[in-house]
Amino acid sequence: MLTCFLFGAWGCALLPGSPQTAVEAALADARQLPATLAHDTRYLSLYHYPRGDLDQAWRVLAFHVNSLSREAKIVVPRRVTADLVAIRLSDYGWPASTFGKAGQHDPFFHRWSDGQLSHAPWLHAPSIAELSQRLNSFYPVLRADWFLVRTAQQQDRHGDGYYDFLGVRTVADFEALVGFDRKAAQRKKREVAAIVRRSGGSKTKPVTLHNRQIFQFDLIGGHWWETRDAATNTGPANALRQLDGDFRHEASEIYAHLPNDLFAYALSARGVALLQATAPDFIAHAQQELDGRVHVMVSCVKCHKEGLRPIDDWGRKVLRSPLGLQSPDLPTLRRLEQLYLSTDFDDLLEEGRSRFAKAVRRCNGWTPSENATAYAQFWDRYVVADRDLAACAAELGTTTARLQRALRQSAKRRGTIDAVLAGLLLDPVEGIEASQWEEVYPLAQTLLQEEDR
């Protein structure tokens, strides 16, 4: 473990917790690996995290990377130092090219300049070059919190989002990943449905805006759950009156067990082959998201604290005796009874939760509720919370005093200062939003380098 003012091989002092300490720790580990194993290895760092927060952060990451896995085995990332883990791409079925696409957007270990991507100049060039050579990758190390945020949704991602790491683009791809055969499940009558008049939240702030139906199918070794969400509550979209194929829905939210029993998440639109990054605004909203939209994976994990939420099954309350289901066509009646009355839907939900809970426990020892809470905190820490002076200094790998001194000296030399960074000189400090911090991070590192000269 690297400690305070450890000296690198080239003789310059390394501040405790910096991009460079992450590179040095990764390089020391990579030198011990056989070439074939090194080429399969990548590193994720939390050099800027307080030591007391690292255990929880690594547990969140263990759940996250396994939730992106195409493999059957749960694999916890290998802890190299207190703030660095190693992952093997093959443990999760990830192509090196997909990990590399994420790296192309990394602001902490790389820098774009004049249309060219290079390793960051605030890193020791021989060290990062050797690490890249040993791993056969231009992207050997990334920030773990940034990586989670980058890969926990699909919106505004470019080949490196949630679906990309799972290797799926279409509904058919997703079905193949989890082993879903709709027609086979229907032939075996392994299909059950529920009717939900109002889903989640409160009467004034529901999660979904209209009524819905929920279908459950058996997979090979697991279950497939899909909502069928309507754009209105009336006519063909009235889930209480239009049963089975008569109900017209516009979008679906899908949960299905991965080979490792965690959930794969998907959003789809009726009649559209491609998977959707977010749910339509006229279908649902997520109060916990900054943009109010339901994003694939991250919104699902944060909202579904039990793994699968409890539902208020209107159908099994109303369609039972003495009212009952009726149809002049006996096969139709039998199918409707199979869907809406044959099985206790709560039992099916509990079975799905139990399978998921065991997989979560293998990842990090938590319950799904503990996991969802920690996942939301980890996400919010990066995405929602503004960077104050201390946070900015930690991410830069410096002290607050040195950072403010570099900013003042730069302002004095240039007669001006970047508007975003200027807030760090105020009293009280004006924080920096996440995406603006990523944009200004290279400039802040450059000013620190100038301050050293």
Outline the structure in words.
Helices cover 41% and strands 13% of the residues. With 453 residues, the chain is an alpha+beta fold. It folds into 3 domains: 19-151, no CATH class; 178-363, no CATH class; 389-452, no CATH class.
Ordered list of secondary-structure elements with their pairings:
Blueprint: H1 19-30, H2 35-39, E1 41-45, H3 54-67, E2 78-81, E3 84-88, H4 89-92, H5 96-103, E4 110-113, E5 116-119, H6 125-135, E6 141-143, H7 144-151, H8 162-166, H9 171-178, H10 182-187, E7 191-196, E8 212-219, E9 222-229, E10 251-257, E11 263-269, H11 298-303, H12 314-318, H13 330-340, H14 345-364, H15 368-383, H16 389-396, H17 400-414, H18 419-422, H19 434-452
Parallel strand pairs: 1-6
Antiparallel strand pairs: 1-3, 2-3, 4-5, 7-8, 8-9, 9-10, 10-11
Beta-strand content estimate? 5-15%
Rg, nearest Å: 25 Å
- The termini sit apart by 29 Å
Mean pLDDT: 91
Task: Give the SSE string.
Answer: HHEHEEHHEEHEHHHHEEEEEHHHHHHHHH
Major sheet, described briefly?
A: 5 strands, antiparallel
Low-confidence stretches: 1-14, 201-206
Derived from helix and strand composition plus strand pairing, the structural class reads alpha+beta
Specify the number of helices.
Answer: 19
The helicity comes to 40-55%
Count of β-strands: 11
Physical arrangement of strands within the biggest beta sheet: 7-8-9-10-11
Number of domains: 3
Which outline best applies? Answer: elongated
